[in-house]
Every structure is written in C-alpha cells, then in structure tokens.
Specification:
The structure is a homodimer. With about 375 residues, chain A is an alpha/beta fold. Chain A is built from 13 helices and 12 strands. Chains A, B: Pfam families: Aminotran_1_2.
Chain lengths: ~375, ~375
C-alpha cells in the first residue's frame, strides 16, 4: 500500500460514514451454536432463545418440502399472498400490513423510516436489545425507563416521551424478558397518552400465548401505532424469518421506500401461509407451551426459586440473589449443556429466563438445575 | 383525529426522517407474479428475472426437505458453517466473507456503511437499479456514466470517480443488463486506477457462467474492493435469498455494525452449503445455461434480431429499432404470457433481455416471438 507523504503513515482506505464510524461491531444476541463452538460443550437443552421446540405444523413442514424444488424462482417481492392472508386474519387492508425478515428486520426499517440522528427514542431499561441496536445504528438517542417491578412502566414511558419530544417509543406486550403483560385497556390508555407525533412500536411477538384481553382491538386509524408480530414464537418458525407489522397505511406504505423488496424468502412465505391456515396446530402448540410453562415453574419452585407469571413462551425466574448470582447459575447451566439467557439490566438481573420446550428438554433442566444451583451457591 | 387550530388542518402524525421524506414508494423490479395479477394473463414462460429454471441440485432439494422440521430454531446468526465453506471455497479467511439476504440486501448494507448524505457514487447509466435504490435511500448522489456500446466504460467510470471524489463505484462483471464482460486484467487495471479511498462494489452475480479469465484473482489485501456473489443465478436458489460479499476484513467487519444478524434463514443456509458442495450439479447447470443461451440466440437470429454475446445466464437482444419498438415487443410478449425485461437507459433501450431456461420455456419463446414482432411492427 502507498503511504502518502505528510500524512503520517495513514493508509488510504474508504472511510465509514460518520454515523457508522461511531458504531461498534456487535451481536445483539450470541447464538447457542456460537456458545457451543466456543466452549466446546455440546448443547443438550436449547431453551434460551424463546423458540418453540414444539415445532411448526406438520402441514407446514410438508408445504415447505413440496415447495423446495421451486427454490430457483425469486419470491414475490410484494409478498401478495401472505399479505392477503394476514390482512384477512387481522381484518384490515392489504396496504395496512408489511411482511419482513423477522421482527428484527422490520424494527430496523421502522427506525430508519422515522429516526434521524439526534432524535429521542424511549424504551425500558432491559427491554429488547435488538431495538436498541437499530436505534444506535441510525443515530437515535435512547432514553431508558426502569421497569416497575416485572412490568414496563407505562406512565413513566409516556412522561419521558413527552419530556424528551421523543419520535418513537418501544413497548413489548407481553413483555420480554420478564414475561409480564398489561391488559389491553392499559395499552390503549398508553397509546392515547402519547403525542400523536410519537410513534409507538408495539412488539406483540408473544401475542399468541397471552391471556385473552391482552391485545388491544385493531384500529388502523391511529396515526402513530405500528404493531409487530411474528411466526417465530408460537408458530414455531423462527428459522424462516417471517415477521409482519401492521397499522395505518401511511406508516406501512413507508416501508416501500426503503425495504429489501426481495428479502423475504420463498419457503418462508409458503411456510407462513400454511401456518396461518392451521388453527388446530396453533391451538395445540399454545396448549403445549402453557403446560411447559407450568412445568418450568414447578421445577423452579422445587429448587427454591420463584417463577414469575408468564404471558409468553418462557418463564422468568427470580434466583433470589443478586445479578452476579444469577449469572453464576446461568454459567453453571451452560457448563452442563443447558442454553438459557437472562436479563442484564439493574433491577431485572437477578432473574434467569427459560423457554417453554418439550419434556425431553425440561427433563434435562430438572436434572441440571439443582446441580447448577449447588455449584453457584458454592462459588458465590 | 384532532385538528390543531392555526395549523391549517395538518393532522399530527409521526414525521418520516428528513432523508426518507424525500424518497418515493418504489419497487426496483416488479415481479412476474404481480404482472400476471394485474394483467390477468397467465404466466407461460418465466424468462425475465435471470433465475435458473434448471433448478437447484436435487441434493439441495433433499437437504432442504430434511431440514424443514428444524425450522423452529433460529438460524446461526454468525452463519458460521456457510462462511467457513465459502472461505474454503474462495481460499480466504472467515473474517473476509459475509453472507446476507441476497446481493440486494448486502448492497443496501454496503451503501449504508460507506455513504453519507451528499456523497458521490458512480455507476453506469442503465446498470443495476437496486443499487441506485439503495444509494438514493441513504442520500448518496449518483453520477451515471454512459455505456460504451455493450460494455461499461471503465476509463470513464474511473475518470468520473476521480473528478467527483466519489466514495463508491459500482461495476458488474459480467454485466447486467448487457451480458458483456471485461477480462480480469481490465478489471484489475480499473481497480488500480481508482483512488484507494473509493470503494469498488464489484458485482459478480454472474461469475459462474463467465468465460475463464473473467474473474480477477482474489486479493483481500486491497483496501477498497468488495466482491459480491450469489446463489441466485447458476446455483438456482434465487428463492432462498443467499448472497455473499468478500474482501478486506476491515470492510467485511463493518457489516457486523449494522446487519440484521438473524436475517439469513436457516433453510437458505442449509441449501447454500449443499449447493456449494455439489460441483457436478453446478457444472451441469452452467452447461445447460450455455446451451440455452445458444438456443435463445438462434431464435433471435431466426427472427431477424441480433443477439449479443453473453457471459451471463441471459441473452440481450438488439431488436433493431428504437426503445419504443423494443418496449412494444416486450409488451406483445407479455400479452402472450412471456415474462421478460429490458434495459430502459438511452443507448441500451433498443434491447430486450431473455433468461436462459429449459427447452419447455424456450419453445414458448420460439412460438410467441414471431407473433410479438409482427404485432409490434404493425403497431409501430
């Protein structure tokens, strides 16, 4: 490489944009495969990413296998059939729903649509890290509001949004990582309390497993509400990356300005369509998830820990110590091939989070949790 | 909705970011499904998107079907196994290759990494519209350089890059939409002629079908070169959205700052791995594509048209008239259920572009092209 005289041995190279130059290389979540590669410990129980080990519908598997030979053809960039089915499912217009590469992909687009460098964005301290990653990626300024116990603090979030003139607020209902939920009326009051120029990003990834009365009625007339759902959780299709967002057509239309139109893969579209049509499987999976939550809670209590109520496909468990102790428990489980995750924010960090899963995996949890607790207690 | 007094009936709503507010809703390419939906004319021959109707390897199809039941698990966000296989395939390090949701998705990320609003970006007039879409999306200022005949004009591109202080130059080799190619030495001279602070986006989507000596030797020491390849063309996997980019680890590492880490679907990763391992199928497909190019050229000549030499999986054909006439030919083919595309830029627009495909589809081309030409001639 040439060294230009008088420029003190700076190697000429393409500079990152000023916004990107400030960003670290990062991964919001390290995957279980990576953890196993680094530790050399084989994965025995994959119960940390809130996937559904109960799997997709057999009809979905059959539809994907049948469509595999057509993988040579680009997907429909308008996602027409999937959007039509989602619109019918939700009782809204096709121009009020957009599909994308998981909620993660859609969150990135939503931030890009509405957040310019310096804009204020509100979230809860300890809420979804991938949202924060996207806000940082577009230069937004995050303001974190502490949880109130196991719940996101709706009135504090709304207050902070008004104080900061925020452009965007993130709320997950049901909540991840705490598993709590607000009833629909509380969410509606929250929406009403926000300035109409402030967009609410309402993440309903766990909506299918929530008690009746958790999800507000759909009202796409609201000018400042986008709701996000996914096929990754109850539908058991995390691997195919299909999320969707719905709301006012002005907001949804914005995605057409910037999205990767051919981004949603063909087999994912096929799978989502088949999944949406198989009500029986969804009902079965939601029931299986509820039973697994019960068993996880039982295992926790048998070990002297306090499970929290859950509206999701995971159970958050208070380990009874501090954040360091909970981290030790998590590390000891990892040593035994059990992959789970935990919240890291102060106030939440004494908890660990365990995903609903088939009995074969929960058997391993039941076997290893007492060992992990003993080891953590001894080390702590 | 509230109307605020004194603000002339402006409905309060979340404003788009200043950058997005200037963008139109757009689709770089309208898909064949959408055309069929709008026209009501059933699709008989899908030979317009440079897909490979010869399909993926049967081993790929089997691998995808076998992996379908595991669709409940998130993909590995590090794409470890695929990147390891690509690194071995290319003879480079794993930190020198990144996989993403098609070349389209990676182009969007590359533009975001290096282009700030107002930065100059160079491309050829009539080259890949999706690249232009991403440049506009991040506020880059595009400078278009006319083709020199059927080739991108390398010396004019380099001159323009220096004149404008461009941050980025796009070059496709082999070229789309003209099917032409430059030999490796010309591309290497072009890279050397660019300032090292100007990143060359070298799109080699059609690299597998190019004559020997088209692709420059791999040299990841270059500070300003990213090369893009895909499983969408010769490998026959456009539906699964798997592209990759490789180059200097500093450039490749940048993607970790902004990419959607879980964006590459699990079945796509499985398919790409299997496709990369099946050399026999790739060889067969490249042979079949070459034979189909020959047949398309024959059909063109039989109809008095002039096919251009092609290093790609399509044949660009000079219709002998002006752009309006070529558009008429395209419209008349569409009326007959034949989906093709054409370049729109002045100088290129008298051409149409037909994808290599199995004989069953080229039979339909052979049947309909004379009809379309007669109809276009009559209408013109």
């Amino acid at each position: 490489m040439r060294i230009r005289p008088g420029r003190s041995a700076v190697v000429p190279q393409p500079p990152f944009s000023p916004l990107v130059a400030r960003l670290p290389e990062t991964v919001p979540f390290v995957g279980p495969e990576a953890l196993a590669r680094r530790s050399g410990i084989p994965l025995r129980a994959r119960i940390g990413a809130n996937e559904s080990g109960f799997g997709p519908s057999p009809k979905v598997v059959a539809a994907v296998a049948a469509a595999a030979p057509q993988s040579w053809a680009y997907p429909d960039p308008e996602n027409h059939d999937l959007r039509a089915a989602l619109a019918a499912h939700l009782g809204i217009g096709m121009d009020e729903v957009v599909a994308g590469e998981g909620i993660d992909g859609l969150l990135g687009l939503a931030v890009r649509l509405f957040i310019a460098p310096g804009d204020a964005v509100i979230t809860s301290l300890g809420a979804y890290p991938t949202f924060n990653y996207h806000v940082a990626g577009f230069g937004g300024v995050l303001h974190g509001v502490p949880y109130a116990g196991a719940h996101e603090d709706l009135s504090a979030l709304a207050d902070r949004a008004r104080e900061t003139g925020a452009r965007m607020v993130y709320l997950a209902n049901p909540d991840n990582p705490m598993g709590s939920h607000w009833p629909a009326e509380a969410v509606e009051a929250f929406i009403t309390a926000l300035p109409e120029t402030c967009l609410l990003i309402l993440d309903e990834a766990y909506g299918e497993t929530a008690p009746a009365g958790t999800l507000p009625p759909i009202d796409t007339a609201r000018p400042n509400l986008l709701r996000f759902r996914t096929f990754s959780k109850a539908y058991g299709l995390a691997g195919l990356r299909i999320g969707y967002a719905f709301g006012n057509s002005r907001l949804v239309g914005g995605f057409e300005r910037i999205r990767n139109h051919f981004g949603l893969n063909r087999l994912g579209q096929v799978a989502a369509l088949a999944a949406l049509a198989d009500h029986d499987h969804l009902g079965w999976a939601v029931g299986a998830i509820a039973r697994a939550r019960g068993r996880i809670a039982d295992i926790a209590r048998e070990n002297g820990l306090a499970p929290l109520p859950s509206a999701t496909n995971f159970v958050t468990i208070d380990c009874g110590g501090d954040g360091d102790y909970a981290s030790l428990v998590l590390a000891e489980l990892a040593q035994r091939g059990v992959f789970i995750r935990k919240p890291m924010a102060p106030g939440l960090d004494r908890h660990i989070r365990i995903s609903a899963a088939p009995d074969s995996e929960l058997d391993i949890l039941a076997e290893t949790l007492p060992q992990a607790l003993r080891a953590a207690y001894g080390a702590g």
